[in-house]
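[job 0412] stage=fold_complex status=start
inputs:
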Amino acid sequence: MYTTTLLMPLTRSVAFGSSRPFSCGLPGTAASQALTRLASKMPRAGIVTVVGKPNVGKSTLLNRIVGQKLSITSPKPQSTRDRVVGIYTSDDSQMVILDTPGLLNPGYLLQQAMRSTALRALDEADVIVYLADATEGKPPSLVEAAELASPPKAPVITVLNKSDAVPASRRDEAGAGEDVMYISALTGDGVPDLMARIAQQLPESPFLYPVDDISTQPVRFFVAELVRETVLEQLHDEVPYAVAVQVEEYREERSPLYIRAVIYVERDSQKAIIIGSKGAQIKSIGETARKKIEAFIGTKVYLDLWVKVLANWRKNPGSLSRFGYQLATGKSK
Ligand code: GDP
Ligand code: MG
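[job 0412] stage=fold_complex status=done
writing structure:
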């Protein structure tokens, strides 16, 4: 069974040791000045939902803002299936950032669940960051792109990402100067301006989470995602899309920390591909994933990786909910 630590939210201090220390003590007069400033100004805090078509860089942006690799990224589309939460806290504002699956027309049940996850996150937002790919020219409006019945309640900031891949002379074509921001989530260019703009639009509110928290999701969620990301990197065509990963055992009291994870696929032929000739493929996936997990948790890990078949799980409501994917509720299509 999972240990209690696993069910706690992810915090800088728990998950990352001293690599990202949070300092709450300020010396002498600086401290009193800071306190006076904080006392005279209500902080701002709220939910910032990042939406857009697949592959525009939503997850890269979440990681850039939080300053940690939390959400998996990939050149392959549809890498994010779930809502991924990252928390960024500064002196006077806190952004609870929701990274979402890309907006697309759903084909099968898993994609329906992904779309409804994105739509629910839009409903929850205090500020929406609508991200588009600058290399693709002027984007459609969010209402068009997401095929929404009505505009969302929250203010929308339209952002063109991948500015590093567009010569400045071509920026006009994509609508620069029409209240559209240009950023590169990859290089960080323009991201501080975007964060300032988001912070301005957040409601005045006390912080929603302790200043040390960086996510509301448990460590085991991120561990499973890192295994899935590795599968996305190492395998091609349909196989990565047929993969779900579950962490079934996580033992912190062991040294090295013991994790048993299962890679679920839909067919025997996919299982054979994941295992590879003489087990070479699963070994390679395991080695790479283990290193990522060790970097993430900050300790040595023994990763015990298994492959199982769960026939057609992407089309099965019971299997989807087992993996934590939520199907549409009334409002979402
Ligand atoms: P998502 O599907 O919207 O979450 O997109 P990802 O964050 O997974 O990124 C998709 C691909 O675009 C990845 O290969 C990223 O490295 C790449 N990417 C993301 N942001 C940028 C950027 O600012 N510039 C460039 N050149 N590539 C980017
Ligand atoms: Mg993503």
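[job 0412] summary: Strands lie at 44-51, 84-89, 93-99, 127-133, 156-161, 181-182, 244-251, 257-265, 301-309.
[job 0412] exit 0
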